[in-house]
Specification:
- With 361 residues, the chain is mostly beta strands.
- The protein contains 1 helix and 28 strands.
- The strands form 7 sheets. Strands 19, 20, 21, 22 and 23 form a 5-stranded antiparallel beta sheet that branches. The protein has a 4-stranded antiparallel beta sheet with strand order 3-2-1-28, with no helix packed on it.
- The longest helix is centred in the middle third of the chain and has 4 residues.
- The radius of gyration is 19 Å and the shape is globular.
- The chain starts with a strand and ends with a strand.
Length: 361
């Protein structure tokens, strides 16, 4: 019988849900009063490992791990993610925790604020700074976005453990083909309408990237204004936002099995960050962005103001796929049929910052 795990990181703790025989049960909050920006579910070991990036207003940021689905948690005696003294930087938060593919079974990456990439070779117990990106010649021109200067997206290629793609707000997309030893800006075609030069080499405010499930060279990108697709692993990008009520938004997620299928949650504008048209709607493409359809069955029909953040929309890997999103109203919605219909899972939570789901059995 399929069991699904859903983790919900909020402004005041983590909630962990498990669906057995069609029924959801949640516990939490874990890490009460701490902001949980990042969660990863690593299923590559003998038991699933949960990794959580949380920030305490008193103790600061930390990375916790659990090998029993949240029954107990371990925090390292020394910070798992820390900037070397010579950088002059200090960690504000971990934005992203990303287990690499099966070709690198012990490797986990962390994206942080200030914008940096860290690499772990012990499944997230200790991390080291990836120096080449930190020392990239464009770094002194990176400018923080409205939410800070964070490395919030990490994409690894299952075919090649040395291929890495990251996104930074507001520096844009960077790629490495040699395991992080060298990095190139990869923003050709991604517009930056807020800059004097709308097509710079770097400086785009990328909000999220997702990789197609079948064509691994196909990536989907939600920008600060603009939805884009790449068919060459980020070498170039094409706008695919036509047909959406707005191409401003934060998250993008790809279907876990279907080719050319992705999901976004449009917002009105950068100056009006509520659902486009004040309607709670997820939009899905099944043809790589040539067209989009609204998915509304079971979602609120009245005026709605729940903003969905960049990591608060995700899929599991069931078939049909589960699709999940949480918003800043503290609501979590789920679909068990690829997004065709929805039902509310949780309400009255603190701000939802991230959601992550995975099939356990």
């Amino acid at each position: 019988m399929t069991e699904v795990l859903l983790t919900v990181g909020t402004r005041k703790g983590l909630f962990v849900g498990r669906r057995r025989a069609g029924t959801w049960e949640f516990d939490g909050p874990h890490f009460p009063a701490e902001s949980v920006y990042a969660v990863a579910v690593d299923r590559r070991g003998p038991v699933p490992r949960l990794l959580v990036g949380a920030v305490s207003s008193h103790w600061g940021p930390s990375v916790f791990r659990s090998d029993d689905l949240g029954a107990t948690w371990t925090e390292p005696p020394r910070p798992a993610v820390a900037f070397p003294k010579d950088t002059g930087a200090s960690l504000e938060r971990v934005w992203q925790l990303h287990p690499a593919g099966s070709a690198a079974p012990e490797v986990v990456y962390a994206g942080t604020e200030p914008a940096a990439l860290f690499r772990s070779e012990d499944r997230g117990e200790t991390f080291e700074l990836v120096r080449a990106l930190w020392e990239h010649p464009t770094r002194d021109k990176w400018v923080p976005g409205g939410g800070g200067e964070g490395l919030h997206t990490i994409v690894t290629d299952p075919r090649d453990a040395n291929a890495l793609t990251v996104a930074v707000s507001t520096a844009g997309v960077f790629r490495s083909t040699d395991g992080g030893a060298h990095w190139d800006p990869s923003n050709k075609g991604v517009s930056a309408v807020f800059l004097p030069d709308p097509n710079p080499e770097f400086g785009q405010c990328v909000h999220k990237i997702a990789q197609d499930a079948v064509d691994l060279d196909r990536l989907y990108l939600q920008n600060h204004w603009g939805v884009f697709r790449s068919d060459d692993a980020g070498g170039s990008w094409t706008a695919i936002g036509a047909g959406l009520p707005s191409d401003f938004g934060f998250p993008v997620a790809a279907h876990p099995h279907r080719a050319d299928t992705a999901y976004v949650f449009p917002l009105n504008a950068d100056s009006d960050r509520v659902p486009a048209g004040r309607r709670c709607r997820v939009f899905r493409t099944g043809d790589a962005g040539a067209s989009w359809e609204p998915l509304t069955a079971g979602l609120p029909e009245s005026a709605h103001y729940g903003t969905v953040l960049r990591d608060a929309l995700c899929t599991d890997d069931a078939d049909p796929a589960g699709i999940y999103f949480g918003n800043r109203n503290g609501e979590v919605y789920a679909s068990a049929d690829d997004g065709d219909s929805w039902h509310p899972l949780l309400s009255h939570l603190p701000d939802v910052l991230c959601v992550r789901a995975a099939v356990l059995t």
